[in-house]
Structures are given as structure tokens and as C-alpha cells.
């Protein structure tokens, strides 16, 4: 009887070999299981008990011959998937066993086998992963004294080609690099560009139909076929697990009730904004104002996405000046508005049509974000905490947020509040000011540019601004004591104006020595008790000497050296500086 079985198995393999001679289709593979099994003993029911089952599997379109898989009938379909994957790891690479779909069909061993397999599984449901093999094949394996007839009891599975990387690549290369729209109308045209067919996200027919379905309580949210096709397309040969998860989820699921709190919309906003942008521009970092009730209040945008310039990202993490893409909602939390210099587009996220339109806008806009980031000058990182010795510093669009981390936080803040109060009371120009404080956090304004002067003219403007501060505070016996370029910043809206900031070490007379200062950037007098304005004047002279300005005149260098060595008063230093500036205008350049 064994010889008869082998003969029939050989005939079956010839059928499969004929099938495998067809051209290989890289986009559609189907795994099928063929089994040689017996007719049940006539009039005698077989007892259900576990046994070893040998299944023959094949991949439609490949040139591989059927391969056997031995499995106990006491195991489940999920175990069978793992066995199939283990038997052909190269054939099924990048395919997780858990996503395999197995179908049970019965075919005669004649005719066009491929066509029959395709037809047999059409419209059928795949086998449940928890189903035991014995439930599918309840009879005992054939006995030697029984007659056999070879027929197919098949398990077929569709293996789809991964397409996520290809589609993301098409999105990111939708237009030539650095061709940035020059007008708002060009930008509007860009975001409304239709996606090409191969740029759309593939869904199987069932998933696509699910997107079009409308529940009785969602009659207002009717989605037409044309609207769905603007972002998705039907495909039974591709799978995009990541894009399916992110984009289908965002399009399909409605927002929470409009009478809910703002917090109830956070997951909805994340699904439609944050998750989508993170897929499109993975080099960025999402931020949101999660502390509106604390010291930061409304200093951060409700949501922002910080895009890192590529060259800077390769060198250091989290340092560059970062362009922002901000979103702000109305009272219902549904509308999304894009702000460049004014609102140029809005969409209603409460409908599937609106959510699909919004995602298409983001796809078209995303290549532009990285280009803009690459064009931005390097500077301070916004909305990202920077760790200092005794505090963290965060820069917002207009403010500087300092959160103190040491035990003396309250003492430091009270000291600063006292200093800033005196600066306001005495009308001191060219300084920052206290905007708000709470707990261990203090907020200062304005936020300006941290930059050193590039020309002698800019250097003289900066030094003049600092000396004006010292002219106002020294008569009141208040001393800054830490005048260095990191504490001299440039005003955003007027490049000729500079501010003296960081008043943490400022003190009224009598002063105490500051042992923790660096000797190469501070006057030797600051390390002694009882020092005064001379340490600030020394610092101004050091600003000149360490400015790094190329082609600095001999007269300006002499001015810096004079301040460091002779310790003039702030009034004397400012007068001499202004005299030199006037002489430059007259062409004489004399101190």
C-alpha cells in the first residue's frame, strides 16, 4: 500500500511542478498545503485522537517545489503558521508568521490547479489562529490496509509585498530639493496637489469598504468613493502595516464628543497630527504645552514639531535653531489652522473627508519642512530644556524659562526678584526683565539672539549698550559681576540694540568674593571681598579683547586694554567710546 501512496504523491508533485513553471509574480504569492489523505473507512466513524500530520505547502508563482511540514494535530493553526515560516525563512523573509492567513479548501488533483486555488479561497474566511488541527482533520491517519485516493485539502495564504518604504520614499521626493514656494498662493497649490496613484496608501478591499461604511449615528460623516481614493487605493498585493495603522486609524475613528474637555481631544489630535507628522518627518521632535497651569503657562504652543537641520543633526543633538509647525484649535478642538504669516488653510477634523484632506496636506507639506530647517541659521534650541549646573533653561518664542534644581532655588529666585525690581525702579536700560515666577521657576523677557558681533561697528554698539547699563547701576552700588559674551544678547527686532542679562550673581555693596568664577574670564578683584564697579569695567574691556572681530582697529583694542588695566568709571569709559565713534564718522578715528 505504501508503494501506491508514493505513486499518487509523485503524480501530485508533477501537477505542482507544472504550475511552478508559470512566470514568477513578485507581487502575489500564495502558500498552499496539499495533503495525501485517505478515504474514511466506509460505515465506520473514526475516533478523534491526536496524530502527526504531514502537510505539503507551496508558494504560487515561485519555482520552489512543495515542501512538507510535520505537525501534531493537537496543535493550533498559529503553531502551523510558525512551522511554515520556519521551513522557508528565506522565501518568507520580512513576513511575520503571525500575519499569515491560512485557508482550508478541497480540490481534485486535475485541471488548472492555480486557478482553482485562487477561486477556492475567494471570499472565504481564513482559519482562526486558535483552531486546533484536529478540528480540521478529525479522522485518524490512513491505515495500511485501506485503499487511498489522492486529493487536495489545501491551506492557502496570500503573502503581500511590503510597500511602506517605497511609498514614504515617493512622498519625500515629491518635488526637487530647495524649490520653496515664494508666495502663499504657491503654498496653497502645493498642499492641494493630488497624490499620484502609486503615492496612495494600499488597503485590501475589506478595509477600504470599512472606511466607506457609515453608522446610523454618523450619517453626517458620509465619505464618498472619490474622497477615499484621494489618499487610499485598493490593493491585494501590497501591505503597509505602519501606514495602515497610522493613516487608516486617523481617517476612520471620529473625535470625542464636542462637549468634552480639552484633555479628551489629546489622543485624537495625536492620531491626526502628531503621529502622522512623525512618520513623514522622523528627524523632528514633537512638543506640547503640558504645563499650562504652572510657571510656563501659555509660553509653549499647544502643539509644535521641531525639525532638526540635517547637517546639525549629524554633528550634535538638540542644539540648532528650529523652525516650528504649530497647530491651534478652536473651542471644540476640531479645526486645524496653519500659521505662516497668516492663516492660509483650515480643515474640519470632525469628518472623515476633513481628516483625509488634512493628511494629504501634511504629505505634500512634509518635504518642505526639512528644506526650511536646512536653510535656518544655527542658534539656540527652542522649547527644549538645556541642562545647566543649577537649573534647566528653556527658550520659547519670546521668553526664557529657568527652573532651578538645587535646594537654594527659593533663595535664588527671591534674590533675582529683588535685583529686577531695582532695575525697573531705577529705569536701567538694555536689560531683560522678570515676566513671571512660580515655585522653582522664573520666566524672563525678552528672548533675544545669542550672538557675538561680526564687525567693529556691531562691537561698539554692543559695548555702548552694556556701558549704559553700568552707568545706571554703579551709582546705586549694584554690580553685575559676570559680564561675558554669553550674557550679552542681541535684540530680535533691532540688531543695533544689545541686552545685558543673567543677573544671578549681581550684588549690592558690600560685596563678597565669588570663588567659583573662572580666572581667565573675570577680574582678579572678583575673588576678593569688597570689590566694586572695577570688575564690571574689566569685563567690558574683556568683551572687546575677546570679540573675535576680524580687522579690529588698533584704537578699539587700546580702548579694551585701557578698561582692563586702568579701571575707569562707567561714565568715563562710555564718554571715551562715544568720542571714538564720533571721530570715526568724521574720518579721524581718534580716542
TrEMBL record:
<dbReference type="GO" id="GO:0005576">
    <property type="term" value="C:extracellular region"/>
</dbReference>
<keyword id="KW-0964">Secreted</keyword>
<dbReference type="GO" id="GO:0043657">
    <property type="term" value="C:host cell"/>
</dbReference>
<dbReference type="Pfam" id="PF20147">
    <property type="entry name" value="Crinkler"/>
</dbReference>
<dbReference type="InterPro" id="IPR045379">
    <property type="entry name" value="Crinkler_N"/>
</dbReference>
<dbReference type="InterPro" id="IPR011009">
    <property type="entry name" value="Kinase-like_dom_sf"/>
</dbReference>
<protein>
    <recommendedName>
        <fullName>Crinkler effector protein N-terminal domain-containing protein</fullName>
    </recommendedName>
</protein>
<feature type="domain" description="Crinkler effector protein N-terminal">
    <location>
        <begin position="53"/>
        <end position="144"/>
    </location>
</feature>
